[in-house]
Every structure is written in structure tokens, then in C-alpha cells.
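User: Sequence recovery, please. Input:
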């Protein structure tokens, strides 16, 4: 007798990395603190000494901030140059440096939004970066204060970057922590240029060592790069960077483990995060879909999926983007009454269906991908279907009963 094969949902998962496997690509956006002593070049040398292929690029015009309203389109959040740079390559990392004074107010206090859109600007640039580089990581440049200030200014800057990251959930380069440790341990080593604000070569070296260590996730002290400073001083500064990055409190507050992408696996039906996480946030096409303690999620529609996971130590990790395509297998009729026929086959303009079964009410036509193309009401023993607007390819036909639930018969044809 009649036997119906069920509709199947098959997932074809494509893993999209936004960057090359063999080259680390780092974009720097900032101002004179980034431009001083060519910070990008120093970071690059650390990677080259590590024998890691690296590409760096910097945009750091003097005096420019992320979101100062009075700067108009020169401010990074409004500047098309910044967004064109973000789109220009498949960057692994974007190091974003703002005027540190915008982070130097009291805890959780920023300049008035009518003057400087600090958080809004960082989030806007982050969202653009993640859109074009789905596997890329934002690195917030948490820096230092003025030379004539005590370390309390560094404390405020550091705290407010952590406030920013409460919502951003990205990675902080704990540069200020490293500077503070160096100042306390070796006050005889000056990190500032004569203006008491910008870094001298020593300060830029410590900054670069911290950024390199945060990105590479390697022991900075094992890197042989010395820059143009005395070897004993370079060795000390690398130790300061490494001890800062290894500090469990700094690691947690800076979300340093967030450099590593969360993993998504599939069993052809479900998406699966790593087990043992405290929380899983599933995103669909950039929007939060579900927040759950369950590591397994069954997608119901095609699109781009991403996962955020929360470790028990408070670390957020974000996955690369997964493109999920759900294809529907067309149910086939299996029995002794295969009397639905289609002619001519192949057909170009008009297809005629011959089906004498009176219980047939309508016909559904599907592409091989499972996408529904046409529904036609049965016209009698022979039903004519206009194919002129149908793309070329193979199609399946289902004959349905009056409730359009039961498949009475199936066949297939080719549109030329």
C-alpha cells in the first residue's frame, strides 16, 4: 500500500574564518599615542622574531579621538577612512586607541555624550569590525596617564575600560597595568617622552610587548626582540608585560582568554558549543537569538550563526561565524500506484500533469534544494502548468489531498 517517506532536514555547515590561517593581520586605529615611535612596527617585530608571518597597518592622526562630536567626520566613529580600512582586509585584530583622558574620570563616568560619544563610538567601530571580520577580535587600548600624576590616573583609565567591556565583551590590552607595575618595581626607568604624556621608546616597547603577548598568547620573555634599548632594560620590560598578562585577576578583568574563539561543532542536526560553560548565547544574523545553559541548539532556518560562551571565571569567548543551510528532502511516494506523469519531459514553457486520482486536490513543485516554487490546483485528469518564470533545473512534484497534508503521489521533471 501507500508509504510516505518523511521530510528530512539536513544541515550543511560551512565554517567561515575572517582571516588567513598563516598570517596574523593587525589593524591599529588611534592617534599620536599609537603613532609615537611607530607602535605598529614594534609589535610587528615581536611577531617576526617569533617567526610568525604578520601584516600590520595603522591609521593614527594626531589629536583625533574615537567620538568627540566637535571633530565631526575626523572623529574615528564618523570617519569613512576608518570604516574603509576595516573593510580593506580580513583583519584578525583591531587595536583601538582613544584619547586616554576620555577614560580618566571617576569610575563608570565618561564625558557628556553631547561632547564625546565614548562608549557609542567604540561599539559602533566594534560592530563594523565584527560585521566585516566575523572571526576578528577587538583589542581595547587601556593605557597610561600623565607623568606628573600618580598611578591613580592609570587606575581610573583601567577601570573605565573594564566598564566599557561590561557590554562589549571583547579583549582589553592591559597596558596600564604593565606601566603601573613597571613604575612601582623600577621607578628609575622613565617611560615618557619629555612632554610627560606620550611614550618614549621605552614606553612604546612596553606597550608593544603587552599587545604582542595578549594577541600571541605566548610568553613574552621568551621572545628575543630587544628594540633599540639596552638589553637588560628590554628584558625587564618584557618581564613586566608577561607578569601582567599572567596575573589571574588581570586576565579575568581584561577578558584575555577571549582572544581564543569559542568552538561550534555539528552533528548534522544540531549546533553544539563546548560543554561545561556557564552560559551560551546564540546569535542569528548578528542578533541575539537565545541565552541558555544548554550547549546544544537546533537551528530551524538558514543563516549565519554565532556563539558567545561564558566560562565560570567570567571570561567571554566568541565563535567564528557558521553559515547554516537547511535543505529539505522532498518526500517520495512508495507503493503500487505510481500513476502521476509529467510531459513533455524535459519541458520549456508548459508542463502537463496527468493524474486520474480524484482524491488529488493540488500539486506542489519544489526545486532540488527543497525551495517551494509553484502550487497549482488540479484541473481534472490533465493539468497544465506555465513554466516560463521558472529557472532551468530539476524539479519534484507532489500531489496533495484536499487538506494539503497527505502526499498521494510524486514525480519529477526537468525545466529546460
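Assistant: Recovered sequence (416 residues):
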Amino acid at each position: 500500500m501507500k508509504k510516505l517517506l518523511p521530510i528530512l532536514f539536513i544541515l550543511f555547515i560551512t565554517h567561515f574564518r575572517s582571516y588567513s590561517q598563516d598570517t596574523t593581520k593587525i589593524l591599529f586605529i588611534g592617534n599620536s599615542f599609537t603613532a609615537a615611535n611607530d607602535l605598529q612596527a614594534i609589535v610587528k617585530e615581536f611577531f617576526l622574531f617569533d617567526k610568525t608571518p604578520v601584516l600590520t597597518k595603522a591609521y593614527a592622526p594626531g589629536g583625533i579621538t574615537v567620538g568627540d562630536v566637535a571633530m565631526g567626520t575626523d572623529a574615528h566613529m564618523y570617519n569613512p577612512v576608518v570604516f574603509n580600512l576595516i573593510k580593506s582586509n580580513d583583519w584578525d585584530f583591531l587595536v583601538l586607541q582613544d584619547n586616554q583622558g576620555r577614560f580618566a574620570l571617576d569610575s563608570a563616568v565618561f564625558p557628556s555624550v553631547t561632547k564625546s560619544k565614548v562608549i557609542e563610538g567604540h561599539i559602533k567601530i566594534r560592530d563594523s569590525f565584527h560585521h566585516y571580520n566575523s572571526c576578528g577580535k577587538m583589542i581595547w587600548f587601556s593605557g597610561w596617564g600623565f607623568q606628573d600624576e600618580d598611578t591613580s590616573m592609570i587606575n581610573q583609565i583601567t577601570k573605565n575600560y573594564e566598564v566599557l567591556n561590561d557590554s562589549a565583551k571583547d579583549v582589553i590590552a592591559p597596558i596600564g597595568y604593565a606601566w603601573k607595575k613597571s613604575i612601582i618595581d623600577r621607578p628609575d626607568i622613565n617611560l615618557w617622552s619629555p612632554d610627560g604624556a606620550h611614550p618614549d621608546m621605552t614606553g612604546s616597547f612596553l606597550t608593544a610587548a603587552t599587545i604582542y603577548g595578549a594577541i600571541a598568547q605566548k610568553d613574552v620573555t621568551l621572545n628575543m626582540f630587544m628594540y633599540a634599548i639596552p638589553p637588560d632594560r628590554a628584558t625587564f620590560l618584557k618581564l613586566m608585560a608577561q607578569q601582567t598578562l599572567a596575573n589571574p585577576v588581570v586576565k579575568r578583568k581584561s577578558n584575555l582568554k577571549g582572544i581564543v574563539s569559542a568552538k561550534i561543532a555539528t552533528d548534522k542536526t544540531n549546533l553544539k558549543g563546548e560543554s561545561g560553560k556557564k552560559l551560551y548565547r546564540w546569535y542569528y544574523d548578528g542578533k541575539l537569538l537565545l541565552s541558555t545553559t544548554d550547549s546544544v541548539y537546533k537551528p530551524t532556518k538558514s543563516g549565519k550563526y554565532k556563539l558567545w560562551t561564558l566560562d565560570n571565571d567570567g571570561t567571554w569567548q566568541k565563535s567564528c561565524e557558521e553559515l547554516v543551510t537547511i535543505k529539505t528532502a522532498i518526500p517520495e511516494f512508495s507503493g503500487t500506484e505510481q500513476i502521476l506523469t509529467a510531459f513533455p519531459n524535459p519541458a520549456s514553457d508548459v508542463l502537463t500533469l496527468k493524474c486520474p486520482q480524484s482524491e488529488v486536490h493540488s500539486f506542489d513543485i519544489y526545486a532540488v534544494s527543497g525551495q517551494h516554487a509553484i502550487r497549482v490546483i488540479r484541473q481534472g485528469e490533465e493539468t497544465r502548468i506555465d513554466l516560463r518564470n521558472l529557472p532551468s533545473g530539476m524539479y519534484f512534484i507532489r500531489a496533495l489531498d484536499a487538506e494539503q497534508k497527505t502526499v498521494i503521489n510524486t514525480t519529477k521533471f526537468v525545466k529546460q
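The radius of gyration is 30 Å.
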